[in-house]
Amino acid sequence: RARMTFDDDLLGQIADEAVAEAAELEPRRTALAECLGRLAPDQRQLVARRYEPGGSVNDMARERGTTPKALSEMLRRIRRALMLCIERRLAQEARA
User: Fold this and answer.
1) If you average pLDDT over residues 68-89, what whole number do you get?
2) Which of 23, 74, 79, 87 is the most buried (most CB within 10 A)?
3) pLDDT at 1
4) Distance (Å, rounded) from C-alpha 86 to C-alpha 7?
5) Cα–Cα distance between 81 and 92 in angstroms, integer?
6) In what helix (H) or strand (E) does residue 1 lie, and over which residues does it extend?
7) Confidence check: pLDDT of 6 > 70
8) Which stretches does DSSP call E strand in the chain?
């Protein structure tokens, strides 16, 4: 196993790129948090449950007394609403 070493210039370039990418994502994270806050509490809970570790559409559907297909459709609509909300927020920020 050969050890690889990187020179300081390359490490600096990688670090600069990582910082730039994080800065680009921050407005989207902020918009997502605001848009999640605007969801109805049951919708917000549904999204949180789905994306927590081990979140299963089948298990959630069983608990809610619905079909996995119906639950997946609910989640699709919520994700679509979130996407549109985020896009509107970012567009408003760009105009400001």
Assistant:
1) 96
2) 74
3) 66
4) 39
5) 17
6) none
7) yes
8) none
pLDDT at 72: 96
Tokens of 89: 């927020």
C-beta of residue 54 within 8 angstroms of C-beta of residue 61: no
- Calpha distance 14→90 (Å, rounded): 27
pLDDT for residue 22: 75
Tokens of 14: 């990688």
Integer angstrom CA distances of residue 12 from 5, 9, 76: 13, 5, 41
16-57 residue pLDDT tens: 788 888 777 889 999 999 999 999 999 999 999 999 998 899
Q: From the CB of residue 32, how many other CB atoms can be counted at a distance below 10 Å?
A: 16
Q: Among residues 15, 37, 20, which one has the least CA distance to residue 81?
A: 37
- Residue at token pair 């994080």: 22
What is d(CA 8, CA 27) in angstroms, rounded to the nearest whole number? 30
Any idea what DSSP says for residue 96? -
